[in-house]
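Please review this one.

:::
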Amino acid sequence: MKAAVRAPALGRFPAVRLGLAAAVWVTLYVVKGPVFDWLVYGAFGLASSTRVADAVHFFLYDTVKIVLLLVGIIFAVTVLRSFFSVERTRALLGGRREGAGNVLAAGLGVVTPFCSCSAVPAFIGFVAAGVPLGVTLSFLIASPMVNEIALVMLFGLFGWGTAALYLASGLTLAVLAGMVLGRLRLERWVEPFVFETRLGGKVLDPSRQLGWGERVQMGVEEVRTILGKIWPYLLVGIGLGAAIHGWVPQSFFLRYAGPGNPLAVPVAVLLGIPLYSNAAGILPLVEALHAKGLAMGTTLAFMMAVVALSLPEMIILRRVLKPRLIAVYVAVVGVGIVATGFLFNALL
């Protein structure tokens, strides 16, 4: 009888290199804010109150932030994928009952603080590992939309009822939209390279245990491959976001999405799509608009559109989704957000 093959331990030298890389990553992530504050407002001499300065700061800061997130996420997802066979991953997120995988994926999206652009490598990892497209899209929707920071801030600003309804509606929307999109069988509208992605370009033999050195090397290779494919879309998306950052004319918003307009919710969603922010960043505006008389459902529908359907993020997603799938994705999620807005207005 053969002895079980055990995975080799991570050697001292690879462990030291991995530890140093992690320390550099954490350091860069922590210092990026002060560094770009000094660079833009100090070295460049741009006044902090101007649109140009804010746009330049936004572009530099978000580019570094998202690249760091992508590097960390791609590497971690690749190493984790190396422990899971396609069959095991399907069993984990696919679910034997309809909708179970969508619920699990949406819940996973809630606890991962990613925007749509930084969720792209996780999307690639799920699809390449055999997770159904609808389940993966539930994760992609929930991850930016239901933000734990926004949840806490909503609780502080408006109370537990609003925060709980935001959480419940966001999760429900992610699950139902993922189920609808999954039933449409839209895999043909995903870019082919997503399905062709393999760990480090290798098709793994499930009977062989990989060493840690091999897993780390696969993570490095996957970072290089995926960033090489998506970086132009990333820069275009962030650049567009920087150009329109902070452009929210409150008077225009109040005029066309104010309390006297029965179509205020869909108008708010349409106004939110071209903008670019995360849930925590848009909440001060939500509070200001609500204080000026906008209904809670209208303002939260606006926030959900900004974080889940922003035009810059759709540009980034274009690298993995074909235009037809992006259009269907926007339509399904948009209808769900509009319905959520009307529900909030009826209940609050």
In short: Residues 189 and 323 are 8 Å apart (CA to CA).
